[in-house]
Amino acid sequence: MPLETVTVCYTMISPQDAALIRPTMCQMLAAAQSGKGVYTSEYGATDPAFFDALIAAHTKGCILKGVFDKTQSAGRVEAVQLTRFKAQVPFAECYRVGTSSVAGQILHLKLIMINVPLTPDQVPIPKQYNHWTDAAQDGYPVVWDGSYNISMSAEEQSNVVHIMPGIDLCQACKTDIDQDWDWIDQHEQAAS
Question: What is the pTM of this model?
Answer without folding.
Answer: 0.87
